[in-house]
Fold:
Amino acid sequence: MAELDLIRAIEGALRPAGGRVVRPPGDDAAVVRARPFAVTSIDTVVDGVHFELATHSAADVGWKALATALSDLAAMGAEPGEAYVALVLPRDFGDGLELVEGMEALARPAGVTIAGGDVVTGPALSVTVAVTGWADAEEQLVGRDGARPGDLVGVTGELGGSEAGRLLLARGDARLDDARVRRHLRPEPRLRAGRALAAAGASAMIDLSDGLATDARHLAERSGARLRVRLADVPVAAGVDAVSDDPAAFAAAGGDDYELLVTVPPRAREAAQRAAPLTWLGTVEAGAGLVVEGPEGQPVRGLRGYEHP
Amino acid sequence: MAELDLIRAIEGALRPAGGRVVRPPGDDAAVVRARPFAVTSIDTVVDGVHFELATHSAADVGWKALATALSDLAAMGAEPGEAYVALVLPRDFGDGLELVEGMEALARPAGVTIAGGDVVTGPALSVTVAVTGWADAEEQLVGRDGARPGDLVGVTGELGGSEAGRLLLARGDARLDDARVRRHLRPEPRLRAGRALAAAGASAMIDLSDGLATDARHLAERSGARLRVRLADVPVAAGVDAVSDDPAAFAAAGGDDYELLVTVPPRAREAAQRAAPLTWLGTVEAGAGLVVEGPEGQPVRGLRGYEHP
Structure:
């Protein structure tokens, strides 16, 4: 299928443009009615690096590529708006439509319009998604850099499920109705929780793409503070104990859960708990880096999350 | 170099964020002060498809990837704002810094801030650039769909130079100070001309990435009209006659010039000429598609521009 035909077919698979989109795909660029602050992130996933086509359907890849990008908007507390999608398709891959439909299955309920794209040929499947979210005031948004000594550290949801699912898929031992497998193939960006936590007064947020052990370090570094996290309080996803002898450490190191790690000043603790179900698992203190405490308070060393090559 | 280190190194190569950028790279997403209309395009270039690393330096690739995306903003008449860059780097490629510096060499004079990015590993070099431009009113922007019977067809600059440069590079017969080669390696998006032509009352615009013969068809199709173009009036770049026996046809078919094809109502002809140096080469009439007229008015068939696979 020639590029132009494919682009038209993909346009056909998408909804008519929503209220914000003034000029839909098909022109040189998409035109969107803006709000005062644009929040934009771009992410690429590549076959063999961020996912395996051996274990992911094309629709899973589309979903995951968009989820990865939207998760960054969740971590800012932004309201999601538009996605722009660039596909590099190998010649033997097929037409990309199933992939775009998988993306649309996540976009639609999230209120996201896929407003533009590009489709080219290349040696390996890769999907780049640029997402733009919106805010009416700068104070509505939360960065990685606002954690202050005395703040509490919380996390949404449960961790380790995606990594457990990845292991099961790699072993060929996976059922698609397994929650761990589903978490790996179709992660859910925490958009609503992110906005609610921002409104509740969160001081810093980051999404857990590389794993708690890595992403907590990023947040600590950007904030110029130390995060102290109690391993015993890490919320472990159901079924992680079936794939690991040390489920808490596994959950703290595993990536791709796309939950939100959040820091909250003590005065905002109750508002944050009302905003989203949270597990409190640590505190912010003066210093640098991440300290993970074992059950007797001893530091646990050597925990590392994903480092995607 | 680990991904995080590379991202930091690239951040170091970029300017401090400009006045519009509220949160620079390094957070989950970039935050930018918006204007009423956001104009966004995303484009990917892949080694071996859109450029050849055998003939392009990493800096050339960075420049070209950004130029390709910015050219879409030029064709809308938008004021360029921010770029978001996703790099897929082969393991043996090096650190990507030279590529980003090549991009920055174009971004800086164009007033574009590289405000975010992603760097991953993959089997072939590919560069995706999402660019956002801005406008204060919808009427400031020009689509592909506004050409009407009676409008004049004009084009900025001269055509065929990039394709001539590509041929010279492929033959190993190129000097880097040759204007044709430079046009191929470092195309200049016509941002100022695009804004000026929009303000002068252009009815439709498209940038010439795939070649006049292809892109004029796109404009005609989107406008629901026919474009009639006189081959004898196609402005041919200097030196095209050295690589082709039929320079006008060569210039009409060659891609990657990134000039603007524009349609203008007769009443706006003089304003358009004041806005940007134009060559008038045709008219819009009722009908569909593109008719290219030879020197005696006969239709010239079989002219096709690029069809990037």
